[in-house]
Design brief:
- By secondary structure, the protein is α/β, with parallel strands linked by helices.
- It contains 13 helices and 24 strands.
- The longest helix has 13 residues, at 236-248.
- The termini are close together.
- The protein binds shikimate-3-phosphate.
- Shikimate-3-phosphate (S3P) binds next to helix 7.
Protein backbone atom coordinates (compact mmCIF):
# COMPACT_ATOMS: atom_id res chain seq x y z
CA UNK A 1 0.00 0.00 0.00
CA UNK A 2 1.23 3.53 -0.75
CA UNK A 3 -0.23 6.98 -0.31
CA UNK A 4 0.67 9.71 -2.73
CA UNK A 5 -0.21 13.17 -1.51
CA UNK A 6 -1.32 16.14 -3.51
CA UNK A 7 1.64 17.86 -5.19
CA UNK A 8 1.37 21.50 -4.15
CA UNK A 9 4.30 22.78 -6.20
CA UNK A 10 4.82 22.49 -9.95
CA UNK A 11 7.10 19.95 -11.55
CA UNK A 12 10.44 21.64 -12.29
CA UNK A 13 14.03 20.84 -13.25
CA UNK A 14 15.15 17.75 -15.15
CA UNK A 15 13.79 14.20 -15.07
CA UNK A 16 15.69 11.13 -16.23
CA UNK A 17 13.49 8.27 -17.39
CA UNK A 18 14.39 4.57 -17.74
CA UNK A 19 15.24 2.83 -21.01
CA UNK A 20 12.54 1.88 -23.50
CA UNK A 21 10.85 -1.42 -22.67
CA UNK A 22 10.14 -2.44 -26.28
CA UNK A 23 13.67 -1.61 -27.46
CA UNK A 24 15.26 -3.34 -24.43
CA UNK A 25 13.46 -6.64 -25.14
CA UNK A 26 14.45 -6.55 -28.79
CA UNK A 27 18.07 -5.65 -28.05
CA UNK A 28 18.59 -8.87 -26.08
CA UNK A 29 16.73 -11.04 -28.59
CA UNK A 30 18.55 -9.73 -31.66
CA UNK A 31 21.99 -9.50 -30.01
CA UNK A 32 21.51 -13.21 -29.25
CA UNK A 33 21.33 -13.95 -32.99
CA UNK A 34 24.69 -12.40 -33.90
CA UNK A 35 28.13 -13.99 -33.48
CA UNK A 36 29.92 -11.11 -31.78
CA UNK A 37 29.54 -9.44 -28.35
CA UNK A 38 27.03 -6.60 -28.17
CA UNK A 39 27.10 -4.02 -25.39
CA UNK A 40 23.63 -2.76 -24.51
CA UNK A 41 23.48 0.57 -22.69
CA UNK A 42 20.56 2.06 -20.76
CA UNK A 43 18.74 -1.29 -20.75
CA UNK A 44 15.45 -1.21 -18.81
CA UNK A 45 15.99 -3.41 -15.76
CA UNK A 46 12.23 -3.66 -15.15
CA UNK A 47 10.79 -7.10 -14.43
CA UNK A 48 9.43 -7.60 -17.97
CA UNK A 49 12.79 -7.15 -19.68
CA UNK A 50 14.48 -9.33 -17.07
CA UNK A 51 12.01 -12.08 -18.04
CA UNK A 52 13.36 -11.84 -21.59
CA UNK A 53 16.94 -11.99 -20.25
CA UNK A 54 16.19 -15.19 -18.33
CA UNK A 55 14.41 -16.83 -21.28
CA UNK A 56 17.34 -16.04 -23.60
CA UNK A 57 19.87 -17.37 -21.06
CA UNK A 58 17.81 -20.58 -20.98
CA UNK A 59 18.40 -21.10 -24.71
CA UNK A 60 22.17 -20.87 -24.30
CA UNK A 61 22.86 -17.17 -24.83
CA UNK A 62 25.65 -15.63 -22.73
CA UNK A 63 24.32 -12.51 -21.00
CA UNK A 64 26.34 -10.54 -18.43
CA UNK A 65 24.99 -7.61 -16.43
CA UNK A 66 26.62 -4.57 -14.89
CA UNK A 67 23.86 -2.27 -13.58
CA UNK A 68 21.80 -1.27 -16.61
CA UNK A 69 24.59 -2.25 -19.02
CA UNK A 70 24.36 -5.73 -20.55
CA UNK A 71 26.86 -7.68 -22.62
CA UNK A 72 25.26 -10.28 -24.89
CA UNK A 73 27.26 -12.82 -26.89
CA UNK A 74 25.17 -14.69 -29.42
CA UNK A 75 25.79 -18.07 -31.03
CA UNK A 76 24.53 -16.97 -34.44
CA UNK A 77 21.16 -17.20 -36.16
CA UNK A 78 21.15 -21.00 -35.78
CA UNK A 79 22.86 -21.31 -32.39
CA UNK A 80 19.94 -21.33 -29.91
CA UNK A 81 19.72 -24.45 -27.73
CA UNK A 82 16.75 -26.33 -26.30
CA UNK A 83 15.80 -24.97 -22.85
CA UNK A 84 15.98 -27.52 -20.04
CA UNK A 85 12.91 -26.25 -18.24
CA UNK A 86 9.65 -24.38 -18.73
CA UNK A 87 10.19 -20.70 -19.59
CA UNK A 88 8.46 -18.15 -17.37
CA UNK A 89 7.59 -14.89 -19.12
CA UNK A 90 6.17 -13.43 -15.89
CA UNK A 91 3.88 -10.50 -16.73
CA UNK A 92 5.46 -9.84 -20.11
CA UNK A 93 3.38 -10.16 -23.28
CA UNK A 94 6.30 -8.92 -25.37
CA UNK A 95 8.59 -11.69 -24.07
CA UNK A 96 6.23 -14.53 -24.84
CA UNK A 97 4.77 -13.27 -28.12
CA UNK A 98 8.11 -12.33 -29.71
CA UNK A 99 9.87 -15.44 -28.47
CA UNK A 100 7.11 -17.69 -29.81
CA UNK A 101 8.00 -16.23 -33.22
CA UNK A 102 11.73 -16.63 -32.68
CA UNK A 103 11.51 -20.18 -31.30
CA UNK A 104 8.91 -21.51 -33.77
CA UNK A 105 11.55 -22.22 -36.47
CA UNK A 106 14.11 -23.76 -34.05
CA UNK A 107 14.80 -27.48 -33.91
CA UNK A 108 13.70 -27.81 -30.30
CA UNK A 109 10.82 -27.85 -27.86
CA UNK A 110 10.06 -24.91 -25.59
CA UNK A 111 7.14 -24.38 -23.23
CA UNK A 112 6.13 -20.92 -21.98
CA UNK A 113 4.03 -19.91 -19.05
CA UNK A 114 3.46 -16.65 -17.21
CA UNK A 115 1.71 -15.00 -14.26
CA UNK A 116 -2.08 -14.91 -13.70
CA UNK A 117 -2.51 -11.87 -15.95
CA UNK A 118 -0.39 -13.20 -18.82
CA UNK A 119 -2.14 -16.60 -18.70
CA UNK A 120 -5.43 -14.77 -19.35
CA UNK A 121 -4.15 -12.74 -22.30
CA UNK A 122 -4.98 -13.73 -25.91
CA UNK A 123 -2.30 -15.75 -27.68
CA UNK A 124 -4.29 -17.10 -30.68
CA UNK A 125 -3.34 -13.89 -32.51
CA UNK A 126 0.31 -15.09 -32.57
CA UNK A 127 -0.28 -18.82 -32.85
CA UNK A 128 -2.50 -18.46 -35.93
CA UNK A 129 0.05 -16.83 -38.28
CA UNK A 130 2.88 -19.01 -36.96
CA UNK A 131 0.88 -22.17 -37.72
CA UNK A 132 0.23 -20.80 -41.23
CA UNK A 133 4.00 -20.47 -41.57
CA UNK A 134 4.33 -24.19 -40.78
CA UNK A 135 5.13 -23.93 -37.05
CA UNK A 136 3.97 -26.54 -34.56
CA UNK A 137 2.48 -24.65 -31.62
CA UNK A 138 -0.08 -25.85 -29.11
CA UNK A 139 -1.62 -23.97 -26.22
CA UNK A 140 -4.15 -24.32 -23.45
CA UNK A 141 -7.82 -23.55 -24.02
CA UNK A 142 -7.85 -24.49 -27.72
CA UNK A 143 -4.60 -22.69 -28.57
CA UNK A 144 -5.74 -19.43 -27.01
CA UNK A 145 -3.75 -19.17 -23.77
CA UNK A 146 -0.53 -19.99 -21.95
CA UNK A 147 0.98 -22.45 -21.19
CA UNK A 148 2.07 -22.86 -24.82
CA UNK A 149 4.50 -25.36 -26.29
CA UNK A 150 6.36 -24.82 -29.53
CA UNK A 151 7.97 -27.83 -31.24
CA UNK A 152 10.50 -28.17 -34.06
CA UNK A 153 8.57 -27.61 -37.32
CA UNK A 154 8.15 -30.40 -39.89
CA UNK A 155 10.36 -29.01 -42.64
CA UNK A 156 11.15 -25.34 -43.16
CA UNK A 157 9.12 -22.34 -42.01
CA UNK A 158 7.24 -20.88 -44.98
CA UNK A 159 7.26 -17.23 -46.07
CA UNK A 160 3.61 -16.11 -46.19
CA UNK A 161 1.54 -13.00 -46.75
CA UNK A 162 -0.41 -12.27 -43.58
CA UNK A 163 -3.07 -9.62 -43.09
CA UNK A 164 -3.21 -8.80 -39.40
CA UNK A 165 -6.72 -8.27 -38.01
CA UNK A 166 -5.41 -5.97 -35.23
CA UNK A 167 -2.50 -3.52 -35.25
CA UNK A 168 -0.11 -5.23 -32.83
CA UNK A 169 3.65 -4.76 -32.81
CA UNK A 170 4.02 -7.93 -30.77
CA UNK A 171 2.24 -10.07 -33.37
CA UNK A 172 4.03 -8.31 -36.23
CA UNK A 173 7.39 -8.85 -34.53
CA UNK A 174 6.67 -12.54 -33.90
CA UNK A 175 5.99 -13.02 -37.63
CA UNK A 176 9.10 -11.02 -38.57
CA UNK A 177 11.32 -13.11 -36.27
CA UNK A 178 9.90 -16.38 -37.64
CA UNK A 179 10.31 -14.90 -41.15
CA UNK A 180 14.08 -14.64 -40.62
CA UNK A 181 14.15 -18.44 -40.97
CA UNK A 182 11.60 -18.80 -43.78
CA UNK A 183 12.09 -20.35 -47.22
CA UNK A 184 10.85 -17.18 -48.91
CA UNK A 185 9.91 -13.55 -48.34
CA UNK A 186 7.32 -12.90 -45.60
CA UNK A 187 4.84 -10.10 -46.18
CA UNK A 188 2.84 -8.60 -43.31
CA UNK A 189 -0.05 -6.18 -43.75
CA UNK A 190 -1.09 -4.12 -40.71
CA UNK A 191 -4.43 -2.30 -40.39
CA UNK A 192 -2.41 0.70 -39.12
CA UNK A 193 1.35 1.03 -38.57
CA UNK A 194 2.40 -0.11 -35.07
CA UNK A 195 5.75 0.46 -33.36
CA UNK A 196 8.59 -0.50 -35.71
CA UNK A 197 11.52 -1.13 -33.35
CA UNK A 198 12.00 -4.73 -34.55
CA UNK A 199 12.30 -3.56 -38.16
CA UNK A 200 14.67 -0.69 -37.25
CA UNK A 201 16.94 -2.86 -35.13
CA UNK A 202 17.03 -5.71 -37.65
CA UNK A 203 18.14 -3.22 -40.30
CA UNK A 204 20.99 -2.16 -38.01
CA UNK A 205 21.95 -5.87 -37.93
CA UNK A 206 22.16 -5.84 -41.74
CA UNK A 207 18.85 -7.60 -42.44
CA UNK A 208 16.78 -6.58 -45.45
CA UNK A 209 13.35 -5.38 -44.29
CA UNK A 210 11.21 -3.15 -46.48
CA UNK A 211 8.29 -1.06 -45.23
CA UNK A 212 5.87 0.61 -47.57
CA UNK A 213 2.86 2.14 -45.84
CA UNK A 214 1.20 -0.67 -43.90
CA UNK A 215 3.13 -3.47 -45.62
CA UNK A 216 6.36 -4.96 -44.24
CA UNK A 217 8.51 -7.40 -46.25
CA UNK A 218 11.09 -9.60 -44.51
CA UNK A 219 13.87 -11.19 -46.59
CA UNK A 220 15.45 -14.16 -44.77
CA UNK A 221 19.15 -13.34 -44.17
CA UNK A 222 22.08 -15.83 -44.22
CA UNK A 223 23.39 -14.28 -41.03
CA UNK A 224 23.05 -11.17 -38.90
CA UNK A 225 25.94 -8.77 -38.33
CA UNK A 226 25.53 -7.46 -34.79
CA UNK A 227 26.60 -3.88 -34.03
CA UNK A 228 29.15 -3.46 -31.20
CA UNK A 229 26.77 -1.35 -29.19
CA UNK A 230 23.07 -0.64 -28.82
CA UNK A 231 22.05 2.45 -26.85
CA UNK A 232 18.45 2.13 -25.68
CA UNK A 233 16.58 5.46 -25.77
CA UNK A 234 14.39 6.53 -22.81
CA UNK A 235 10.85 5.18 -22.81
CA UNK A 236 8.19 7.65 -23.98
CA UNK A 237 5.62 5.43 -22.22
CA UNK A 238 7.39 6.22 -18.92
CA UNK A 239 7.83 9.88 -19.89
CA UNK A 240 4.04 10.00 -20.39
CA UNK A 241 3.37 10.33 -16.65
CA UNK A 242 5.61 13.40 -16.41
CA UNK A 243 4.30 14.91 -19.65
CA UNK A 244 0.78 14.73 -18.23
CA UNK A 245 1.66 15.79 -14.68
CA UNK A 246 3.74 18.78 -15.80
CA UNK A 247 0.91 19.89 -18.09
CA UNK A 248 -1.84 19.76 -15.48
CA UNK A 249 0.03 20.99 -12.36
CA UNK A 250 0.32 24.75 -11.90
CA UNK A 251 3.84 26.27 -12.18
CA UNK A 252 5.49 23.39 -13.99
CA UNK A 253 8.35 23.69 -16.43
CA UNK A 254 10.36 20.51 -16.75
CA UNK A 255 12.81 18.89 -19.14
CA UNK A 256 12.42 15.13 -19.56
CA UNK A 257 15.81 13.94 -20.78
CA UNK A 258 16.55 11.43 -23.51
CA UNK A 259 13.11 10.33 -24.67
CA UNK A 260 12.68 7.99 -27.65
CA UNK A 261 10.57 9.86 -30.22
CA UNK A 262 10.22 7.27 -32.98
CA UNK A 263 7.13 8.49 -34.87
CA UNK A 264 5.30 5.19 -34.31
CA UNK A 265 5.35 6.08 -30.59
CA UNK A 266 4.71 9.83 -30.47
CA UNK A 267 0.91 9.81 -30.58
CA UNK A 268 0.90 11.19 -27.04
CA UNK A 269 2.80 14.30 -28.14
CA UNK A 270 0.35 14.86 -31.01
CA UNK A 271 -2.82 14.53 -28.93
CA UNK A 272 -1.48 16.50 -25.95
CA UNK A 273 -0.47 19.34 -28.29
CA UNK A 274 -3.86 19.18 -30.00
CA UNK A 275 -5.47 19.50 -26.55
CA UNK A 276 -3.37 22.61 -25.85
CA UNK A 277 -0.19 21.28 -24.16
CA UNK A 278 3.10 23.12 -24.62
CA UNK A 279 5.74 20.55 -25.53
CA UNK A 280 9.08 21.39 -27.11
CA UNK A 281 11.55 18.83 -28.49
CA UNK A 282 15.20 19.76 -27.78
CA UNK A 283 18.51 18.14 -28.86
CA UNK A 284 16.98 15.77 -31.42
CA UNK A 285 19.47 12.95 -32.24
CA UNK A 286 19.61 9.50 -33.88
CA UNK A 287 21.22 6.24 -32.82
CA UNK A 288 20.75 2.70 -34.17
CA UNK A 289 17.76 3.72 -36.27
CA UNK A 290 15.92 5.27 -33.30
CA UNK A 291 15.39 9.02 -32.76
CA UNK A 292 15.47 10.60 -29.32
CA UNK A 293 15.33 14.07 -27.81
CA UNK A 294 14.67 15.98 -24.59
CA UNK A 295 11.10 17.11 -23.99
CA UNK A 296 10.39 20.46 -22.36
CA UNK A 297 6.87 20.49 -20.94
CA UNK A 298 5.19 23.40 -19.15
CA UNK A 299 1.82 23.96 -17.46
CA UNK A 300 -0.92 24.45 -20.02
CA UNK A 301 -4.67 24.86 -20.18
CA UNK A 302 -6.18 21.84 -21.90
CA UNK A 303 -9.43 21.40 -23.83
CA UNK A 304 -11.32 18.29 -24.89
CA UNK A 305 -10.44 16.61 -28.21
CA UNK A 306 -11.48 13.55 -30.22
CA UNK A 307 -9.17 10.92 -31.74
CA UNK A 308 -9.01 7.25 -32.77
CA UNK A 309 -8.04 5.06 -35.76
CA UNK A 310 -4.38 5.19 -36.79
CA UNK A 311 -3.44 7.33 -33.75
CA UNK A 312 -4.31 4.53 -31.30
CA UNK A 313 -1.37 2.14 -31.95
CA UNK A 314 0.94 5.19 -31.62
CA UNK A 315 -0.16 5.79 -28.01
CA UNK A 316 -1.83 2.55 -26.89
CA UNK A 317 0.11 2.26 -23.61
CA UNK A 318 -0.30 5.96 -22.80
CA UNK A 319 -4.12 6.01 -22.83
CA UNK A 320 -4.47 5.73 -19.02
CA UNK A 321 -2.13 8.74 -18.57
CA UNK A 322 -3.88 10.68 -21.36
CA UNK A 323 -7.23 9.94 -19.67
CA UNK A 324 -5.87 11.61 -16.52
CA UNK A 325 -4.95 14.71 -18.56
CA UNK A 326 -8.44 14.70 -20.13
CA UNK A 327 -10.05 14.84 -16.67
CA UNK A 328 -8.24 18.16 -16.13
CA UNK A 329 -9.23 19.56 -19.56
CA UNK A 330 -12.22 21.81 -20.23
CA UNK A 331 -14.94 19.85 -22.03
CA UNK A 332 -15.24 16.28 -23.28
CA UNK A 333 -12.48 14.08 -24.70
CA UNK A 334 -13.55 11.17 -26.93
CA UNK A 335 -11.06 8.36 -27.58
CA UNK A 336 -12.36 5.93 -30.20
CA UNK A 337 -11.16 2.42 -31.24
CA UNK A 338 -9.65 1.43 -27.91
CA UNK A 339 -11.00 -2.16 -27.72
CA UNK A 340 -7.40 -3.44 -27.42
CA UNK A 341 -7.28 -1.91 -23.93
CA UNK A 342 -9.49 -4.78 -22.78
CA UNK A 343 -6.66 -7.30 -23.33
CA UNK A 344 -3.72 -5.49 -21.76
CA UNK A 345 -2.19 -6.34 -18.35
CA UNK A 346 -5.70 -5.72 -16.98
CA UNK A 347 -8.96 -4.80 -18.73
CA UNK A 348 -7.71 -1.21 -18.87
CA UNK A 349 -10.93 0.20 -20.29
CA UNK A 350 -12.96 -1.11 -17.35
CA UNK A 351 -10.15 -0.21 -14.93
CA UNK A 352 -9.93 3.41 -16.13
CA UNK A 353 -13.69 3.86 -15.74
CA UNK A 354 -13.92 2.18 -12.31
CA UNK A 355 -10.75 3.50 -10.70
CA UNK A 356 -10.69 7.01 -12.18
CA UNK A 357 -14.36 7.66 -11.38
CA UNK A 358 -13.30 7.33 -7.72
CA UNK A 359 -11.41 10.63 -8.18
CA UNK A 360 -14.15 12.32 -10.14
CA UNK A 361 -17.50 10.49 -10.09
CA UNK A 362 -19.24 10.28 -13.46
CA UNK A 363 -16.33 11.73 -15.43
CA UNK A 364 -15.33 8.49 -17.22
CA UNK A 365 -17.55 6.37 -19.48
CA UNK A 366 -16.86 3.42 -21.78
CA UNK A 367 -19.26 2.87 -24.68
CA UNK A 368 -18.26 -0.27 -26.62
CA UNK A 369 -14.72 0.54 -27.75
CA UNK A 370 -14.91 4.28 -27.07
CA UNK A 371 -13.69 6.04 -23.93
CA UNK A 372 -15.39 9.33 -23.07
CA UNK A 373 -13.99 11.68 -20.46
CA UNK A 374 -16.03 14.61 -19.17
CA UNK A 375 -13.29 17.05 -18.17
CA UNK A 376 -13.15 19.85 -15.66
CA UNK A 377 -15.28 18.31 -12.88
CA UNK A 378 -14.51 18.28 -9.16
CA UNK A 379 -11.75 15.89 -7.93
CA UNK A 380 -11.45 14.01 -4.63
CA UNK A 381 -9.05 11.79 -2.69
CA UNK A 382 -9.37 8.15 -3.90
CA UNK A 383 -8.43 4.64 -2.83
CA UNK A 384 -7.49 2.74 -5.97
CA UNK A 385 -6.90 -0.91 -6.81
CA UNK A 386 -3.97 -1.29 -9.18
CA UNK A 387 -5.12 -4.75 -10.44
CA UNK A 388 -1.44 -5.77 -10.81
CA UNK A 389 -1.26 -3.39 -13.81
CA UNK A 390 1.82 -1.14 -13.77
CA UNK A 391 0.44 1.53 -16.09
CA UNK A 392 -2.81 1.76 -14.17
CA UNK A 393 -0.87 2.09 -10.88
CA UNK A 394 1.30 4.94 -12.21
CA UNK A 395 -1.69 6.70 -13.75
CA UNK A 396 -3.58 6.53 -10.44
CA UNK A 397 -0.46 7.94 -8.73
CA UNK A 398 -0.29 11.02 -10.98
CA UNK A 399 -4.05 11.47 -10.84
CA UNK A 400 -3.78 11.61 -7.02
CA UNK A 401 -0.77 13.94 -7.13
CA UNK A 402 -2.72 16.40 -9.29
CA UNK A 403 -6.02 15.96 -7.40
CA UNK A 404 -6.40 15.45 -3.62
CA UNK A 405 -4.06 12.49 -3.14
CA UNK A 406 -4.49 8.74 -3.62
CA UNK A 407 -3.95 5.46 -1.81
CA UNK A 408 -2.92 2.61 -4.10
CA UNK A 409 -3.40 -0.89 -2.69
CA UNK A 410 -0.34 -2.49 -4.27
CA UNK A 411 2.54 -0.59 -5.86
CA UNK A 412 4.62 -3.72 -6.51
CA UNK A 413 3.59 -3.97 -10.19
CA UNK A 414 5.31 -0.63 -10.97
CA UNK A 415 8.63 -2.51 -11.13
CA UNK A 416 7.46 -4.08 -14.41
CA UNK A 417 8.40 -0.99 -16.42
CA UNK A 418 9.59 1.78 -14.07
CA UNK A 419 11.29 0.49 -10.90
CA UNK A 420 12.05 3.89 -9.32
CA UNK A 421 8.94 5.76 -10.47
CA UNK A 422 7.68 6.55 -6.96
CA UNK A 423 11.04 8.14 -5.98
CA UNK A 424 10.26 10.98 -8.36
CA UNK A 425 6.93 11.80 -6.75
CA UNK A 426 8.02 13.89 -3.78
CA UNK A 427 5.32 13.03 -1.25
CA UNK A 428 4.90 9.28 -0.98
CA UNK A 429 4.07 7.49 2.29
CA UNK A 430 4.04 3.74 3.03
C1 LIG B 1 4.61 -3.76 -27.44
C2 LIG B 1 3.49 -3.65 -28.21
C3 LIG B 1 2.17 -3.24 -27.69
C4 LIG B 1 2.31 -2.58 -26.33
C5 LIG B 1 3.21 -3.34 -25.42
C6 LIG B 1 4.61 -3.44 -26.00
C7 LIG B 1 5.88 -4.20 -28.06
O1 LIG B 1 1.36 -4.38 -27.54
O2 LIG B 1 1.03 -2.43 -25.74
O3 LIG B 1 3.29 -2.71 -24.15
O4 LIG B 1 6.94 -4.07 -27.44
O5 LIG B 1 5.82 -4.68 -29.20
P1 LIG B 1 0.48 -4.98 -28.75
O6 LIG B 1 1.39 -5.50 -29.77
O7 LIG B 1 -0.34 -6.07 -28.13
O8 LIG B 1 -0.37 -3.83 -29.23
Amino acid sequence: MKQILRFDAGLRGEIEIPGDKSVSHRSIMLAALGNTPVEIENFLTGADCLSTVECMKSVGVKIERDGNKFLVTGNGLHGLKEPENILDAGNSGTTVRLLLGLFAPQKFLATFTGDDSLRRRPMARVIKPLVQMGATVVGRNGNKNLPITVLAPFGKIRGIRYEMPVASAQVKSAIILAGLYADDVTEIVEPYPSRNHTENMLKSFGAKIETSGNVIKVYPPEKLEAPEKIVVPGDISSAAYWIVLATILENSDVVIKNVGINETRTGILDVMEKAGAKIEILNKRESGGEISGDLRVATSKLHGIEFGGSTIPRLIDEIPAIAVAAAFAEGDTVIRDVGELRVKESDRLAAIVEEFNKFSPGSFEAREDTLIIHGGREKFFAKCKTRADHRLAMSCAIFGAAAEGVEIDDENCIKISYPNFLNFLNKVKS
